[in-house]
Write a structure and sequence with these properties.
This protein has 269 residues and is an alpha/beta fold. The protein is 42% helix and 13% strand. It contains 9 helices and 10 strands. Strand 9 and strand 10 (241-244) form a beta hairpin. Helix 2 (65-77) packs across helix 3 (102-108) and helix 2 runs parallel beside helix 9. It is globular, with a radius of gyration of 24 Å.
């Protein structure tokens, strides 16, 4: 009788041990999966201008705060870490400092990101392999220092050719006009795109101040330019290139960029 009880007890202990090991293995497996997914969620690079004046007008400019904060809010909320680079590095000048915009306020009051944008990286400090996307924020300052910055153009080309996303909003597409891919073609050639339009530039009385008209130059590079009425939201995504027409399109650019990133993540599984 005692032997029978001992045998039953040993069997129960054995089964309990097997079950416990199985649960631990499952838990470890789940932890490993979460850790792998977290590692796979790479960073996104935001480009902001270092230029602070509108030509010879004496008017101040810089990056447009909402064109940083709204895409940031979408992508940061989705779990992506964001870094900032500017042509000169260091503190970037800010325009349209509107704290009545709740998303602007949320971004500006985030100590981590406030520190990042006030201490932007220099292009030489950026490794394109660290990023799954690059976003060019607008603001009139971009018209003076984005187009001819070869270092950032090379970073963008590498991210794109590494199956990444390139996005831009408003005057941010100034950074796209001279990006060439390894096949020798302009990034925008043959792709649907939009940006701050000629009509919008006329409406803000800066058509003779900016060094070039963005709409005209993008068309010259082979872009298929789309647009809506002035200051109406317009976002287009084509072949991993996401663009928005104006400040009203900033949130939509963030959402479209996230959608493209999620699509790529699914296709890689």
């Amino acid at each position: 009788m005692l032997n029978t009880i001992k045998i039953k007890t040993l069997i129960i202990l054995f089964l309990f041990t097997v079950l416990l090991i199985g649960c631990n293995d499952k838990s470890n497996s789940e932890k490993s999966t979460v850790q792998t997914e977290a590692k796979a969620l790479k960073k996104i690079l935001f480009v902001v201008t270092s230029h602070s004046e509108k030509g010879d007008t004496g008017e101040k400019t810089g990056y447009y705060l909402g064109e940083v904060s709204h895409p940031w809010d979408v992508l940061h909320t989705a779990g992506y870490e964001i870094d900032f680079v500017s042509p000169q590095g260091g503190k970037a000048p800010v325009d349209a400092f509107d704290m009545s915009d709740a998303i602007n306020k949320k971004f500006w009051n985030n100590d981590t990101y406030r520190n990042k944008i006030e201490n932007t990286k220099k292009p030489s400090e950026v490794n394109p392999e660290d990023y799954v996307a690059i976003h060019y924020a607008g603001g009139h300052g971009a018209m003076w220092d984005f187009a001819d910055n070869e270092e950032i153009a090379e970073i963008a080309a590498k991210i794109y050719e590494n199956n990444g996303i390139v996005s831009a909003v408003c005057h941010g597409p100034a950074g796209l006009v001279n990006i060439k891919l390894s096949n020798g073609l302009y990034l925008v050639d043959g792709k649907k795109i939009n940006a701050f339009t000629n009509e919008e530039e006329v409406k803000v009385n800066l058509e003779d101040v900016v060094p070039f008209l963005l709409e005209d130059t993008l068309k010259e590079r082979g872009a298929i330019f789309e647009k809506s009425a002035p200051f109406t939201e317009h976002v287009v995504a084509d072949q991993r290139l996401v663009t928005g027409q104006n400040p009203q399109s900033a949130h939509g650019v963030g959402k479209a960029t996230l959608k493209e990133l999620q699509r790529l993540t699914k296709s890689e599984k």
